[in-house]
Write a structure and sequence with these properties.
about 425 residues; alpha/beta; FAD/NAD(P)-binding domain; 3 domains; 24 strands
Length: about 425
């Protein structure tokens, strides 16, 4: 439509979906502005919960957000597609063809015009060019991959039940960050619940989790006492924690470590490192860093193009103190708020605001066993939290995300429904 300002957001993760929702609500009654969200998946699940999808604690069919329905309710449009290129001169993005499972082309490759483009594609695990990772490892980079891991895990337990085997099932988790640590705890939760559902031979000793970390401790980005507490909890559950361990290769039999040590594995999950997809590497001539993040200025606009913003894991922002904004959900949430305001200012002809990152701390959940973390307290001091308080705060982070998407009333109803479903539904997804 002539004279219409087209805002296109690529990526429906925590930051992208929140931004689309805010802008949709803002401009839904203004025909001069259109907001379009593009994602390669039809529904949204908060990425910090992917480990719960992998364990079966979270059912995406019940807890996911359908993009089309959400768009209809909040004043923006949605299209299914994956980014393949960028034409800055003509202000167009290129999308890959949509393919059916049988290989038929559902929608051919297409172009989308934009006036303001926001890239919020997120990141994936970094394999560091280790041989065998792509062929033999699962990742938790998408809901699809988490579901594949869940199905593989169930198949292994079904085999153990049919044969009467007590295991152990060897699961290797590479990467001792929050995702790897939380997944390890969730795996032991499975062994505690499966006997209730007819897997009588499955006990906690039926599972052997090996957590491999290249640095000298797990949760290396958090204070030392948090790492120590996490190690005690996981060791108490039965996990084998290997630090200062570098993976040299992965094959169908297990993981080979530097020093000619090999860990036998039935399943390997790669949760190490962060890297953006190759599509973003110098896309449209934009400046990117070695892990393909788009370099942005303090307003979160590309260093090369004032009509292009980037936020979340795919944005590389160096703060005044020389540090970089970490790839966390809270970062994406804060960036989405800043980009929203800057787009509004840009359309109004006002100056854009500089982004200020506020570290509110980190929380790590060990399924039902414990929750630990550190929060930013008064005067910038870090406060250690554990147990019930930490668990409440951990859940609150997800509720804040839901509030940004649905508002207070709908989020309260979703919380109520969640409590009811815990009484009605199995504790684990068993298919």
């Amino acid at each position: 439509m002539k004279g219409m300002t087209r805002i296109v957001i690529v990526g429906g993760g925590a930051g992208g979906l929140e931004l689309a929702t805010r802008l949709g609500r803002k401009f839904r009654k203004q025909r001069a502005v259109s907001v379009l969200l593009i994602d390669k998946h039809p529904f949204h699940v908060w990425k910090p919960l992917f480990h719960e999808v992998a364990s079966g604690s979270l059912d995406v069919d019940m807890d996911g957000v359908d993009y089309r329905a959400h768009a209809a309710n909040h004043g923006f449009e949605f299209q299914l597609g994956a980014l393949s290129g960028l034409d800055r001169e003509n202000r167009q993005i290129r999308l890959e063809a949509l393919m059916a499972d049988d290989g038929d082309i559902v929608v051919p490759p297409r172009t989308i015009d934009y006036d303001i483009l926001v890239l919020a594609i997120g990141s994936a695990s970094n394999d560091f060019s280790v041989p065998g990772v792509h062929e033999h490892c699962f990742t938790l980079d998408s809901v699809t991959e988490a579901n594949h891991f869940h199905q593989r895990l169930l198949n292994h337990f079904l085999k153990m039940k049919a044969s009467g085997s007590e295991g152990p099932l060897n699961v290797v988790v590479v990467g001792g960050g929050a995702t790897g640590v939380e997944l390890a705890a969730e795996l032991y939760k499975i062994t505690d619940y499966l006997p209730v559902y007819g897997f009588s031979t499955i006990q906690r000793r039926s599972l052997a989790v090996h957590l491999i970390e290249a640095s000298d401790r797990i949760l290396n980005g958090l204070p030392w006492h948090i790492s120590q507490k996490a190690s005690l909890i996981l060791s108490g559950l039965g996990a084998n924690i290997l630090t200062n361990a570098s993976v040299e290769s992965v094959d169908r039999d297990g993981v080979s470590l530097k020093g000619d040590k090999k860990i036998a594995a039935d399943v390997v999950v790669w949760c190490a490192g962060v890297k953006c997809q190759e599509t973003l590497k110098n896309i449209g001539g934009l400046t990117t860093n070695p892990i393909n993040q788009i370099v942005v200025d303090m307003t979160l606009r590309s260093a090369d193009d004032t009509s292009i913003y980037a936020l979340g894991d795919c944005a590389s922002l160096t703060l005044d103190d020389g540090s970089r904004v970490p790839p966390r959900a809270q970062s994406a949430h804060q960036m989405a708020s800043c980009v929203c305001q800057n787009i509004i200012n840009q359309l109004a002809g006002s100056p854009c605001e500089s982004f200020t990152y506020r570290d509110h701390g980190s929380l790590v959940s060990f399924a039902e066993y414990s929750t630990v973390g550190v929060l930013a307290g008064l005067m910038g001091k870090k406060v250690f939290v554990e147990g019930g308080i930490a668990k409440y705060l951990y859940i609150s982070l997800y509720r804040l995300h839901q509030i940004a998407l649905h508002g207070y009333l709908r989020t309260a109803l979703l919380a109520l429904v969640g409590r009811i479903n815990r009484r009605l539904r199995p504790a684990l997804k068993l298919h």
